[in-house]
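Hey, quick one: can you model this chain's 3D structure?
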Amino acid sequence: MQNKKTEAWRNFKGEEWKHKINVSDFIQQNYSEYTGTGDFLVPPTEKTKKIWKKCLNLFKRENEKGILDVETNRISGINTLKPGYICEEDDVIVGLQADKPLKRLVNPYGGIRMVQKSLGCYQKKLNPTIEKHFTEYRKTHNDGVFDAYTPAIRRARTAGLLTGLPDNYGREGCCQYQFRCRSEPGFFARYFHS
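Sure thing. Here's the predicted structure for all 194 residues.
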């Protein structure tokens, strides 16, 4: 006899998503449009208003200062820091991404120079051990992409002929290649002669 949990999906509509991965088909076959009003929604509680007020004050402080805090001794990760709170006694959702509200984490996997430049804007420096690891022992995404460039691509990049190359973006998979060509006479000859 089948367990109820393994049989639950059988009541959903559609066929295509049952035979291959097709999230779009599943959603299109099984969603129900809500045409009612928002009358069932309740206004924010006093606890929510209190937390939101603290958030607005934090946003204001951050806009004035640039950043409130940044972790420079550990790199970004799901368990890098202990959970933080906006207002621990009132928070319903337990734990922020960092141990303090609006504390930033660094992610040097995308590119160490980008992290160094960003921290420099706020007169901060990365922990030297982390910096050494990412400059001597570990290749970042940007380093890998740049190493794959041919000499011609490097010259075109330096000249500003190509923009939107996936270095200095900091995230794999989010890179778009946008090529722009200059139409000056002789431009290609100057940078691409063999």
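One thing worth noting: Strands lie at 69-75, 103-106, 162-163, 178-179.
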